[in-house]
Amino acid sequence: MWRRETSTVVRRAAVHPGQTVAPFVILAESQVPSVPTEWAPHSHQLHELVWVRGGTLTSRVEDRVFTVSEGYGLWMPAGVVHGGRTTAGVRFHDAFFAPDRTPFTFEGPTAITMTPVLESLLAHLARTDLEAAARARAEAVVFDVLQPSERQFALQLPGDSRIDAIAEALLDDPADCRSLDEWARTLGISDRTIARAFRQATGLSFAQWRQMLRAHRALALLSEGFDVQTVSDVLGYAQPSTFIAAFRRVMGVTPGAFFVAADETPDGVRNPVSGVRNS
Question: Cα-Cα-Cα-Cα dihedral of 214, 85, 116, 145, to 10°?
Fold first, then answer.
C-alpha cells in the first residue's frame, strides 16, 4: 500500500468469537489507535463492516487497494483475506455479522454508505446491556438501511511484472511525474508496451491510473486535515486548481463537495476540509 510511516505499529488481528459463542447477530465496537496502525493480512469467520472518523482506513485485498474515508464503510465478506492501515488518532469502528443470520450477501469487498441512521444503530448495538428484543429490533433496522454506495472506490494494482515497478514507485511517491517515455527508458521496454500493459491489467490508461492513485492518496491526506494547497504540492500538481480539476474528473465532485457530509457529523468530530479555500 502507501509508504509506511516510521511510527506505524503492526498488529495481528484479534480472533473474534464466533456466533456460536456470542448470542448476537451483530457485534459492534470501536477504538482510537494513538499511532498509525497496520493489521497484518488476516480473515474472519464473520462478515465485517469497518468505518472511520477523523482520518482514513486503507485496506489491501489481493491486487486492490480500498480507501475508506468519512461517510463510507467497507464490507468484508467472511473468509476474505485482507490487511488494513489507519492513520493516528482515527476513531476506528467495526461491526461483525453472523453469516448464517445476515439476510444478504456481497460477492466481495463492497463500499457502504454510512448514513447517520446506520452509524447510530451500530453505536446502539455496541452496548452490552440491551435486552434481546431491543437488540433484535435494532438489528432488523440495520439490515433495512445498510446499502452499497453508488461509488465503489478501489484502485486496481497491475500485478504485471513489466510495470509493477511503476506502481510501486507511485505508491511510494504519488508526485512522481515521470512520463511514459521516461519510464520506458528506465525499464528498457517500449512506451507502447507500458501503455498496453496498464490498459490490460487495470482497464485504465497509465495517465488515468496515476490520476486514480493520486485521488486515493488525496482522500487520505484531506481526511487527516491537510489543506488543498498542501495536498496539491504533495501529489505533484503545479497548482491547487489543477489538483481540484483532476480530483473532480475521478470522483465526479470537488474535494470540498466530497467531504460536505462531514459538516453533519456529531460534535467533537473534526471537519478537515470545510472552509478550506479552493476546496
Answer: 100
Cα-flanking dihedrals φ and ψ of residue 168, to 5°?
Answer: -65, -40
Query: Is 89 exposed, middle or buried, given 0-12, 13-18 or 19+ CB atoms closer than 10 A?
Result: middle
148 secondary structure, DSSP code: B
Whether residue 174 is predicted with pLDDT greater than 90 in this model: the reply is yes
Asked whether residue 82 carries a pLDDT value surpassing 90, the answer given is yes
Amino acid code (one letter) for 96: F
Using the predicted structure, report yes or no on whether residue 54 has a pLDDT greater than 90.
Answer: no
Instruction: Please check whether residue 89 is in contact with residue 83, taking contact to mean a CB–CB distance below 8 angstroms.
Output: no
Which long-range CB contacts under 8 A does 167-174 form with residues at least 24 apart?
170/210, 170/213, 171/1, 171/2, 171/3, 171/213, 172/2, 172/3, 173/3, 174/210, 174/213, 174/214, 174/217, 174/234, 174/235, 174/236
Cβ pair 112, 149 in contact under 8 A: yes
* Residue among 164, 273, 216, 209 nearest 58 (CA): 216
With CA atoms as reference, report the closest residue to 277 among 245, 244, 248.
Answer: 244
